[in-house]
Write a structure and sequence with these properties.
heterodimer, A: alpha/beta, Rossmann fold, 10 strands, B: about 425 residues, alpha+beta, 2 domains, 15 helices
Chain lengths: ~210, ~425
């Protein structure tokens, strides 16, 4: 499902990053660990097609990302990739549920209310659906951020430090949920973290 | 979810910014549409009222004032002219109609106009309730006067001297009786109380007699002796010195316009004015006012376009991360541009429509003011061609402003923007 080979990237500063090859089947999990500054987030953006690699290939679901046009990449990402960002990004002018609805609406015009309710129930957001995003607590914002990465049932879930702002109970819940969702949708799950609580849950690890 | 909804939510998420942009746009649009409508309709109203007459003859003075006072009834007269001299004009072969009018009194601020019944025919005014006046001190009331003063057929009132309600002292003794109420005409007639010439003359003679009587105490006996003789002489003298305010003339022959005014102005103590010429001059003056107003309004329109530009530029900068997020959702650059454009267009359309409505509200208020003061009504009309054109221009300004504001969307670095805290 996710395959990278000989991936390198050059930062604006000129620093060159080389990444180990990754090979991940549908429904498999991978934990990417390593000290900060080694390019964990960069790897994530490369896999999401948000950055072009200097060299090497990335293929997702049999599609070589380098063969896609910009428009094709946009659509491909919209359909098949779910991103959970380290910093939370929402559309602030929309309420919580509308943020979820927005993610469903692009690129395919879907509006699955059942899915929204079910997912927010499992993430403990049901009572906050009509609130403004800014009215949510840090933990709630993180859970919404995760919901936005999962709502459209992507083939690949790319999560960047998804548990950094969560207490132990919610951390457990989120990890279980990510695993569960990946299983239901038969998605590949890539998690970047330095959170020890997460590491104990996954066996397949890649050190950067 | 449609992009339109997102654009709408984005627009209302900054209410103060929105308000500022909208207010500027509203102000400019309302000024332009108000000035355009006022100029257009006022010209029409004035022309409708002067239509029956080609020339006005009155006392020397400002020709514009003569037309304003005698035809449009919105100014004081230049003075009086002798009836005898005016009658000479009536006999001229080029003259079709020559109608004497006489005024100088009011009832609660509404002018009492002494004239012949034909005056009403020229404005196609008909008696709606009651009857036409037949004797002195009978009066028919224009519809607007009747409504405002709640006059009914059979009502009796006393006139006051002067043309405005404030400065008049009441005439004693000669009450008027309302014999009829006119149907509405949409002309100046609606604002007048119309009676015959004799009523005006008599009420002013009475005043003169009254004055003479109080000063003539010493000669009472003598006066009494010759009372019969005196009365006779008095009447003749009055006949001789009878005056009217002006003479409204319609020509039989277009040559009249060329010959008569010059003849009157050069050879008599009276002056002749041409209503159409004077009104043209007046609307020319108004026109320059309207043009100035339009200039100011267009300047404000540009400022409002600029404010929309700045407001969009600001929000696009502030929403860089949201735009980058939307790119990861699969929205293309074209869709983000469309999002910004929709927001700008929404603002413009709301601003234009509310500005247009405000302009019409202004016309409505000006109309009720003018109706009270001068008897002119303005219509609330649907948008005309010029206003549609203005709408187009406004939209174009908005599109250009949005396009300039959203240039940064083209080179948005999604990965970098999302990583920046």
């Amino acid at each position: 499902m996710v395959k990278t080979s000989n991936l390198t990237y050059t930062h604006e500063s000129g620093e060159q990053l080389t990444f180990p090859d990754i090979s991940l089947n549908s429904g498999e999990h991978l934990l990417v660990v390593g000290p900060s500054g080694v390019g964990k987030t960069t790897l994530l953006y490369l896999m999401a097609g948000l950055l072009p690699p200097l060299d090497g290939t990335i293929s997702i679901d049999g599609t070589d990302l380098s063969t896609l046009t910009r428009k094709g990449m946009d659509l491909f990402r919209g359909h098949h990739i779910g991103l959970v960002f380290q910093q939370y990004h929402f559309v602030r002018s929309l309420a919580v549920e509308d943020n979820l609805r927005l993610r469903q609406s692009f690129p395919k015009d879907a509006n699955d209310k059942q899915r929204r309710l079910e997912l927010s129930e499992r993430l403990g957001l049901s009572d906050h659906l009509h609130k403004k995003v800014s009215a949510l607590s840090q933990g709630q914002q993180q859970r919404l951020s995760i919901a936005l990465g999962l709502i459209h049932k992507p083939k690949v879930i790319l999560a960047d430090e998804p548990t950094s702002n969560l207490d132990d109970v919610n951390c457990e819940k989120v990890i279980e949920l990510l695993k569960e969702e990946a299983k239901i949708c038969n998605s590949s799950l890539v998690i970047i973290t330095h959170d020890l609580r997460v590491m104990s849950h996954f066996e397949n690890r890649s050190m950067l | 979810m449609r992009l339109g909804y997102l654009a709408y939510r984005n627009m209302v998420s900054k209410p103060l910014n929105l308000l500022l942009s909208l207010m500027l746009l509203m102000l400019s649009v309302s000024l332009v549409t108000f000035a355009l409508q006022l100029g257009k309709q006022l010209g029409g109203e004035l022309n409708k009222n002067i239509a029956p007459y080609d020339m006005v003859v009155g006392a020397k003075g400002s020709p514009l004032q003569l037309v304003l006072s005698s035809v449009l009834h919105i100014d004081v007269p230049t003075g009086n002219i002798p009836l005898r001299e005016a009658s000479e004009i009536q006999k001229h072969p080029f003259v079709k109609i020559a109608l004497p009018v006489c005024y100088g009194d009011n009832y609660k601020g509404y002018r009492i106009l002494g004239t012949k019944p034909e005056y009403l025919d020229h404005y196609a005014a008909t008696v709606g309730e009651g009857n036409m006046y037949h004797r002195s001190f009978e009066v028919v009331a224009g519809r607007a006067v009747a409504q405002k003063l709640e006059l009914k057929v059979g009502d009796v009132f006393t006139s006051a001297h002067g043309l405005a309600s404030a400065n008049g002292e009441a005439h004693d003794g000669h009450p008027y009786i309302v014999t009829g109420i006119l149907n509405p005409t949409g002309t100046v007639v609606d604002q007048l109380l119309i009676t015959d010439l004799e009523s005006i003359w008599e009420s002013h003679e009475h005043e003169k007699d009254h004055d003479e009587a109080s000063h003539g105490g010493d000669h009472e006996e003598e006066a009494h002796d010759h009372s019969e003789e005196h009365a006779h002489a008095h009447e003749e003298e009055h006949e001789d010195e009878k005056e009217i305010t002006s003479l409204l003339v319609k020509f039989k022959n277009p040559l009249g316009v060329v010959q008569l005014p010059r003849y009157i102005n050069e050879n008599t103590s009276m002056q002749a004015a041409l209503p159409s010429y004077e009104v043209q001059r007046l609307t020319g003056l108004l026109g320059s006012g309207v043009r100035t107003l339009n200039g100011i309004a267009f300047a404000i329109l540009l400022v409002s376009g600029f404010s929309i530009f700045i407001s969009l530029l600001k929000t696009i900068r502030e929403r860089r991360q949201e735009l980058a997020l939307l790119r990861t959702y699969g929205l293309r650059i074209r869709q983000l541009l469309w999002l910004a454009l929709l927001e700008g267009l929404f603002m413009t359309m709301i601003g234009f429509v509310s500005g247009w409505t405000l302009g019409r509200l202004g016309i409505w208020m000006a109309s009720s003011y003018m109706q009270n003061s001068y008897g002119y009504r303005l219509q609330i009309m649907w948008p005309d061609t010029v206003e549609w054109l203005l709408f187009g221009i406004t939209l174009m300004i908005a599109v250009i402003a949005t396009m300039f504001a959203s240039r940064s969307i083209f080179n948005l670095n999604v990965a970098k923007t999302l990583s920046d805290a």
